[in-house]
């Protein structure tokens, strides 16, 4: 293979005009390749050296080459490439060094600028992209709502792509970022086992806000089958399962049923809640949990989280 062929192969079949000319190919030869249909133009000065649809990695390379030297995939695009999310979205995101000018209007591409890109770009991944921890924080920084910011952090840790400690280190290196107090507090909770926005909400708005005993989160239980308990109140033999949509349909539903049945046989009480319960009525969830915990030996009482709280701090509140 020629040097140009090797470069095109590395870049998933996409190459720039500057790279073609640097390899000794004439302008006339380049134009002939395009006019003959062997190559085709993807962006201004960027060509695919094959026919047919462009795979996603080739689309990303085309955007990076169009953005110019030092550019890297970032935000939602880098998240998809690294397995942080399952939907690439309709737009390819690239970040370029802040001291460079890039035409902001590139079809299907969103261009970001960052002073820190030389430090946050991954040194070897193909296509070039930001480091995973930096990608998470970039997405946090542009998240429109706190729940969206929480979702990126918990997804990264739940999928075992990073750790709370690594994210905390990356966060400390950023001078400015949106949602900083929220993320700093959240990383401590994720380190204690909360793996989704639903689990975070239960920890903060149900358990802590109402003074319930601290549960053991993501506890591994080994038997004939390994099971993970979302929240386990071991001294009182009470378990709470928090059901998001992922993992609790189809075969996951049968695994849930088997786990709950085994727990009942072993003398555990299992309470199960979804988004509508924990986000819509955290006080009602706390009151119900408190009743079961009290019936199984917890000596405490739920406390009020506010004026309209249903889980009032008195003996009658739990029956």
Give the number of helices.
14
Helix content class: 40-55%
Shape: elongated
| Number of individual domains | 3
End-to-end C-alpha gap: 79 Å
**Percentage of residues in DSSP E strands:** 15-25%
What ranges have pLDDT less than 50 throughout 5 or more consecutive residues?
245-255, 313-319
**H/E element order:** HEHHEEHEHEEHHHHHHEEEHEHH
In spatial order, strands of the major sheet run 7-8-9-10
- Please tell me the overall pLDDT: 88
Oligomer kind: single chain
Cα gyration radius (Å):
26 Å
Task: Report the structural category.
Answer: alpha+beta
Number of strands: 10
Reported for the largest beta sheet, the result is:
4 strands, mixed
List the helices and strands and how they pair.
Blueprint: H1 3-10, E1 14-16, H2 17-22, H3 27-35, E2 40-43, E3 46-48, H4 56-67, E4 72-73, H5 75-81, E5 92-97, E6 109-114, H6 117-120, H7 132-142, H8 146-158, H9 164-172, H10 180-191, H11 197-208, E7 216-221, E8 227-233, E9 238-243, H12 251-265, E10 269-274, H13 275-280, H14 282-295
Parallel strand pairs: 5-6, 9-10
Antiparallel strand pairs: 1-3, 2-3, 4-5, 7-8, 8-9
Helix pairs in contact: 5-7, 7-8, 7-9, 8-10, 9-10, 11-14
Notable characteristics:
alpha+beta; disordered C terminus; three-stranded antiparallel beta sheet; 15% strand; 319 residues; Endonuclease, Chain A; four-stranded mixed beta sheet; 10 strands
């Amino acid at each position: 293979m020629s040097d140009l062929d090797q470069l095109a192969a590395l870049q998933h079949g996409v190459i720039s005009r500057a790279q073609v000319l640097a390899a000794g190919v004439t302008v006339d030869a380049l134009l002939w390749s395009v006019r003959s249909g062997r190559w085709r133009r993807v962006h201004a000065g960027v060509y695919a050296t094959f026919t047919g649809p462009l795979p996603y990695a080739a689309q990303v390379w085309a955007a990076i080459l169009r953005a110019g030297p030092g550019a890297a995939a970032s935000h939602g695009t880098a998240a998809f490439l690294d397995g942080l999310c399952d939907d690439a979205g309709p737009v390819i995101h690239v970040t370029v060094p802040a001291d460079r000018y890039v035409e902001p209007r590139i079809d299907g591409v969103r261009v970001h600028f960052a002073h820190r890109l030389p430090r946050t770009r991954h040194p070897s991944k193909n296509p070039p992209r930001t480091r995973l921890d930096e990608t998470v924080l970039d997405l946090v920084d542009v998240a429109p709502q706190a729940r969206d910011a929480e979702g990126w952090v918990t997804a990264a840790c739940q999928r075992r792509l990073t750790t709370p400690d690594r994210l905390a280190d990356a966060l400390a290196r950023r001078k400015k970022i949106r949602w900083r107090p929220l993320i700093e507090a959240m990383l401590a909770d994720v380190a204690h086992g909360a793996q989704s926005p639903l689990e975070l909400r239960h920890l903060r708005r149900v358990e802590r806000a109402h003074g319930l005993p601290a549960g053991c989160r993501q506890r591994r239980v080994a038997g004939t089958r390994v099971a993970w308990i979302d929240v386990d109140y071991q001294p009182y033999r009470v378990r709470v399962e928090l059901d998001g949509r992922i993992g609790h349909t189809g075969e996951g539903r049968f695994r849930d049923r088997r786990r709950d049945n085994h727990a009942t046989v072993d003398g555990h009480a299992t309470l199960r809640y979804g988004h509508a319960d924990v986000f819509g009525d955290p006080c009602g969830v706390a009151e119900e949990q408190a009743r079961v915990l009290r019936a199984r030996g917890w000596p405490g009482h739920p406390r009020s989280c506010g004026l309209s709280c249903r889980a009032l701090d008195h003996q009658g509140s739990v029956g």
